[in-house]
Amino acid sequence: MGPEEDLPTLLSRNDCLGILRYIRVHLLHEPNLVVTHGQALLGFANDGSKTKPSQSLDDATRLAALEQLCIASLDIGNISLADGCLGTINTSVSEQSSRYRKLLGMRLEATGQFEDAAKIYDDLLADNPSNGHAAKRKYCILAAQNGKEEEAMKALNDYLTNYPGDIATWDQMAETCLSMSDFTGAAYCYEEIVLGCPLNSTVHMKLGEVYSTVGDYKLARKHLSQAVLLDENNLRAWFGLLDASQSYLEEVQLSNAKNKRDVDEHDLAVAKEVILLGGDKVMGHYQGTKFGKLVEQLLLESSQVI
Amino acid sequence: MALHSARHGFSPIHGILIGNRQSSSPPSLRVTDAIPVCHEVPTRPVVNMALRLVDIYLSSDNDDRKEDNVILGWYTANKNGGDMPNVSALRIVNSMSEQCSEEEGEEALILVLVSPEREEGPLCTVFEKGNNGKTFTQKVDASRIEESKDDSQQVRDLIVRGIKEMSNFSTDYGEKNGLAIYDYVDHMSDYDGQSKQLDMRNWIENKDVADFVAGAEAR
Predict the structure, then answer these.
(1) For residues A192 and A165, is the Cβ–Cβ distance under 8 A?
(2) Chain B residue with minimum CA distance to A144
(3) In Å, how far is A14's CA from the nearest CA of chain B?
(4) Could you tell me the maximum CA-CA distance found in chain B, to the nearest angstrom?
(5) What is the pLDDT of residue A255?
(6) pLDDT single digits (tens) A141-189
(7) Using CB atoms within 10 A of its CB, is residue B53 exposed (0-12), middle (13-18) or buried (19+)?
(8) Minimal CA–CA distance to A18: which of A2, A29, A35, A39?
(9) Under an 8 A CB cutoff, do A233 and B193 touch?
(10) pTM of the predicted protein model
(11) Partner residue opposite B46 with nearest CB, options A209, A242, A290
């Protein structure tokens, strides 16, 4: 595999080892691809029985590929294949290996044996309290079950107390908060992620959308504007910006009718300009497409609030 | 709806139900289509924009139709299964209902929970606003539901064929190899500035899925 080759190129050459490496290095979630090419590379049938591998590999490469294939098999629910991988791994590593035991735990999770899986992770944490993988799997056990959202949040909280810089876990916490409609909590999580990834357009977009959902249109506009500054093709952020600005203006009109609040005139002017600018930008992308007329009508309705 | 769920098997899914209101006695709703919106917990801007775009689409599309299609409700599938709709879907359909009451007087809406993981029994559970008028947690009795397909096994077989067709598809591979289904979030994700991508990811019509279902039914 050359350093510049992308996934479509590797797929066209059927470079099984290259495909597995690419997916691992780029942290892609493609279990079907891993299973198809991992089986061919390592010589496994669908039921986990051995067939002829496509090439011989050194021990380190083979074990890494086996671990990857095992996890992908569990992902797609092929337990027999996962058991085949575990059996092969066990011939080369000790049963006390923490990586092997983590895979065993994941195999138990995949078949719903959550208590047995939790016991393995508790043992791993007893051996090494800073085993982040085991702590995360304990959260995953709770996240996989209905009605355990609060316990899952507590598990994430415990993990983040020890690993406050783990951006991926803050993202997971944000998703858990969103699933419970705790938008304030989700905003807190995304603020932490923004600290770690200030130049990520998607994170600013998500934070802006959450603020819009709780009704804080000023902060929503701030982060959605940042999102489009970082990536002018972030259409979702453009639409979010239009929606937040329109919602703000409608709220002001409603409160004006009830003589309820003093309004920042500069803020109003900015919101109106954003609707016009955002409309131009969005229409620039949709002009000439099948959606052109729909978007044009949408923008016309939005501008009526100005 | 099942294909939308299968495409994003690790996430909750949400979408819009459209159809028409029959002035029969008693009045009834006829669901004719489902439009996928997102495969995550929806936020206000996503829901607002999707509903507005679908509303505008229906207004323009209805010119050619005998019966006017309108938005009839919302559909969802839970991340972890279960018999009741998730909190997000309840929140959205309640909000839609409040808006309907304000703008057009009381119009019935429904919430459909899709459960493709079920091996037997109905794949969809329909919910309506409870008698207390508060939230959409009241199941609609099966006797009040008429399905266009009597054979649920045939529907399941169609879904399995659709999932097999879908499994070859991924936008990461640079080329479409299988059946594609797009939602509103997919439509805008990873936009590369090339407008043709927007037409290709037609989340409102999803022509490939419509052709697949029509082709499978014709056999």
Answers:
(1) no
(2) B80
(3) 13
(4) 52
(5) 82
(6) 998 887 888 888 898 998 898 889 999 999 999 999 999 899 999 999 9
(7) buried
(8) A2
(9) yes
(10) 0.85
(11) A209
